[in-house]
Amino acid sequence: MEVFKSIANTSSSFFVICILLLFANAASEKTHYHDFVIQATPVKRLCKTSNAITVNGQYPGPTLEVNNGDTLVVNVVNKARYNVTIHWHGVRQMRTAWADGPEFITQCPIRPGKSYTYRFTIQGQEGTLWWHAHSSWLRATVYGALIIHPKEGGNYPFPKPKRETPILLGEWWNTNPIDVVRQATRTGAAPNVSDAYTINGQPGDLYKCSRQDTTIVHMDSGETNLLRVINAGLNQQLFFTVANHKLTVVGADANYVKPFTTSVLMLGPGQTTDVLIKADQTPSRYYMAARAYASAQGAPFDNTTTTAILEYNTASCSSNCTTTNPILPSLPAYNDTTTATAFTTKFRSPRKVEVPTEIDENLFITVGLGLENCPTGVPSSNCQGPNGSRFAASMNNVSFVLPSNFSLLQAHHQGIPGVFSTDFPAVPPVKFNYTGNVSRSLWQPIRGTKLYKLNYGARVQVVLQGTGIFTAENHPIHLHGYDFYIIAEGFGNFNPKTDTSKFNLVDPPLRNTASLPVKGWTVIRFVADNPGVWIMHCHLDVHITWGLAMAFLVENGVSELESLEAPPVDFPVC
Fold this sequence. Notes:
metal-binding; EC 1.10.3.2; lignin degradation; mainly beta; 6-stranded mixed β-sheet; Immunoglobulin-like; apoplast; globular
């Protein structure tokens, strides 16, 4: 009898402990409320004041800080003259695709004078993400950091740094970015490149009228700082370095990585990299600097350099350093693909991971530019691309067209016909020498709103294959609603007979944005465990403008927890 009492007591104690743990977790998970007012704000850069679109009058916008497990409720009020949406870049949005944000994909835009509240929970993610406008080119100035700390009481998998500093790399135009993209869309030509790069909104000492506002990052001698580096630039991959200092990479895209040390980072737009930097040099002032990694041969790009200052706080430095010029680092050559590749291929997960090994859906997707012949009856002023054409871009020869009357998610959820089709090709319609000299007959894509349907739980492999059509270049490919394992990358045409031997199925990195090498390929894998419509696109905004995108339609699973939530009551209407 005593034995049974003991067992009963033990069981009840275990039950009580479980309940207490559940309450403790619930108590530590908070809901954060924010108001984002989208508005025109006078911003002076490069000697000129422009009316930039901002959030709450801030450029860059506010940094949001949460813990893993917390919920964000962000009320966005649009007081600007443009339609707008906000995308929470890299947030998994489990069952909350309505809050993802890409215009006409998961929602209709927030019209001027209207509002929409984004509600979502951070689940199992820690590190650095960011948020940005996902409507036309508004994200040139509408962006900010989203920092996810470990759960309360949790720790980093590395010694806690003394300080943490977001480093947002951006691009600045002296003219209205919306006018820049509208002119390019009207003429069919490439848009004008930016006039400056920025670090935390400031161009830095090497630009006119900028020195007095250069971003300064302070450190004490001997301390370690966690730099949360984000490429928020619109159209350019960037190299980043700090003079005389090593950087230890510990995270990327809100996933921890096996630490490695480097002197230079390369980030495509959309990517984030967390690095530890130790103030172990002679107390002084050192430039942080970023400039273009420009892989497209012959294509124009902004060749300027943005700087911030790493300043030691020691007494000896405070009296001497402000009068001395900071030490300038050396940066890789603009077209240094060797350095870019050496960096991207160093990433590994911290330990063995569960990579899907049995594949249900195997896609091979070509990624590249194209040219559209000038349509009959269209004036030559609208066809100012090469040889009187219009620039285009495509995946598997389909140039993605956004709908205009419904969002894709709304059309899927409500069964509205005629908005999209589900015949996106799993392989290129024509096989060719993808990275070689491509026949001009293959340069013109077809236009369409084609989705690829996935069953809930499907194990998916995608081979992303760059092409040499018009010009080859590195493409940062971002998938909404998912992280994916990058199991291999290489140059040339992917060969399934030989390149599968390069697959890392042990500890590949988990990312939300992959750098597709110039004239090369990348292989990613993920499990389709998040129902909704999820766009996969090049994060160079000029390319998504031209149609370099596709979308997955992931069906609901069986249970409620495997199904898309109902749309919010304040969901914007088109």
